[in-house]
Amino acid sequence: MTNDANRNSYSGQGQKNTGDEPLDLGQSKYDFRSLVFPNDLGMDDNGHYMIININVPSDAKRTEAQGAFRDKITELPGEASKVDRLRFGQSGTISKNEGSYWNPFNLPEKAANLPGIQVGGNENAAYFALQRKTMRIAESIALHMPTPLVYNTHNAYEEISLTALGFKLGAAGLTAIASAVTAGIAGSVAKAIGAGEIVKTVTNAVGKTVSTASKIMQNPINPAVEILFSNTLVRQFTLEVMMAPRNERESISLHNIIKTLRFHAAPEIAGAMNLLGFELGAGLFWIPPAEFDITFFNKGVENMNILRMNTCVMERIEVDYSPTGVYSTFRNGHPVAVRLSLGLRELEPIHKKRILQGF
Fold it and tell me: Which of 48, 137, 139, 179 has the smallest set of CB atoms within 10 Å of its CB?
């Protein structure tokens, strides 16, 4: 697979989004360099493969990458990640026409943009969204499809006991019980503890006593449990790719792919920083790792027949140099097979808007 094949995978020109149509989140319209494995990726009859784009930490305007390793990347100034483009539009940047700003200190207009926080506005934005302040770089990785490819959506629910909350007995009943018991407590103790704490303590004690007594009588109190929605959890993925190089060129590509992923998934120790007029020494802060956009293609265009993945952080990289159970290498020392396992977590939870956009 050549770089030309990759460049043709998506024009990056975008499309008008009506809310029900997926945004164009494919490859950059700029030229870019790719690490490809195997060499003929996408040239078979099926033509399925995935592209991993890398978003490195940058300044607020995405014009310059952070850190001391800028010589290791090719910058694409202004290019945003999927999650920012989904939240703030094709530019991935907060603008006057795309929402109101979070400006608690009544800062001037330009200064108000610095926090990178948007409240509402853009139809694609989250109600309260942080701009990631990353920039997509030219380097990308092209691999065949991972197996298995599993999407899990988890909603968190809580069990709420209406009896424990006092709804079954009623507030008047709890107050009457508490008042009757506290009436016999010495005034000095009541003053020392406080009426509110007495009611709370006695109510809990009475509730436990009544509950225990009812169990002894073989008639336990009905807890009146209700299930209430609490939260939807962000999706997590494990992508595994088995790679067996067939020649020296593919061995070198395999080595460079693993090194590139590990490099960008690692944080950087920051140099000296000036914060509020104070010079802070090197090593006190981290520059966060890169974030990753993974897109699945079929014959050069994004495959919309499977679910999409939003921008992810890479929580885990596992490299198995003896996936067959026997360690074996070529004469040059490169392994004959490698199993690469990537543990990923999306940056935002799935909601109805994202589902309509293909996620």
Answer: 179
Global confidence as pTM = 0.74
Q: What is the mean pLDDT of residues 195-204?
A: 55
- What does the radius of gyration of the chain's CA atoms come to, in whole angstroms? 28
| H helices present in 217-295, as ranges | 248-264
HSE on the CB side for 348, CA within 13 Å? Answer: 25
Burial 15-40 (b: 16+ CB within 10 A, else e): eebeeeebbbbbbbeeebebbbbbee
User: What is the model's pLDDT at position 9?
Assistant: 37
Close Cβ partners of 86 (under 8 Å, ≥ 6 residues apart): 23, 25, 124, 310, 354, 357
pLDDT band at 95 (very low <50, low <70, confident <90, very high): low
Per-residue pLDDT tens digits for 278-309: 666 667 788 999 999 999 999 888 999 999 99
Of 70, 50, 19, the residue nearest 263 (C-alpha)? 70
Structure tokens given for 50: 């995935």
Two tokens, residue 276: 């509020």
